[in-house]
Amino acid sequence: MEDVYIESGIKKNTKLCEIKDLKEDKAIIKKGADKYLPGIIIYKSNNSIYIWLNNCPHANLTLDIIEGRVQAKNNDLLCANHGARFNPTTGECIKGPCKNTFLKSFPYKIKNNCILAG
Ligand code: FES
Fold first, then answer.
1. pTM to 2 decimals?
2. How far from 27 is each of 2, 3, 42, 60, 88, CA to CA, in Å?
3. Is there a contact between 19 and 47 (Cβ–Cβ < 8 Å)?
4. I need a labelling partner for 2 at 20 to 30 A (CA). Which of 14, 32, 51, 71 fits?
5. Is the distance from the beta carbon of residue 101 to the nearest atom of ligand 1 less than 6 Å?
6. How would you classify the pairing of strands 108-111 and 114-117?
7. How many domains, the chain?
8. For residue 102, what are the β-bridge partners?
9. How far apart are CA 113 and CA 91, in angstroms?
10. Mutate which of 55, 61, 65 for ligand 1 pocket (most atoms within 8 A of beta carbon)
11. Cα-to-centroid distance, 19 and ligand 1 (Å)
12. Is any ligand 1 atom within 6 A of the Cβ of residue 85?
């Protein structure tokens, strides 16, 4: 599990955001200290929070070409590189060149209404 911190560029215990910053069914991107690493995608739906490594399993690229844009109109996560679509709550690729593969889950914990890596 430790490698996901290295891969993302976000260290364990880093404050990711406050719960109030998340809007229902809207994904946000959090970059790490190293802008060349992919960072993560944070998504909230039905009072559950899902965090994924912002790295498409098709070609190991970030999903967003325009920074922060990772969603289709129906809220699926969308890789702008070759059009893969991912279920935002399971991370599964449901359409596209890497169908049936998964985004990598990123661990988190909640403390004092803040979401922390870990
Ligand atoms: S890199 Fe995401 S679909 Fe190709």
1. 0.95
2. 24, 23, 5, 19, 9
3. no
4. 71
5. no
6. antiparallel
7. 1
8. 92
9. 24
10. 61
11. 29
12. no
CA–CA dist 18, 2 (Å, integer): 23
Model pLDDT for residues 45-98, shown as the tens digit of each residue: 999 999 999 999 999 999 999 988 999 999 999 999 999 999 999 999 999 999
Give residue for tokens 């039905």: 46
89, 69, 32: which is closest to 79 by C-alpha?
A: 69
β-bridge mates for residue 40, sequence order: 30, 53
Residue type present at position 97: P
Which residue of 41, 55, 56 sits with most ligand 1 atoms within 8 Å of its CB, as the best mutation to test the pocket?
56
Specify the CATH number for the domain of residue 34: 2.102.10.10
The one-letter amino acid at 44: K
Tell me which residue range forms the domain holding 87. 2-117
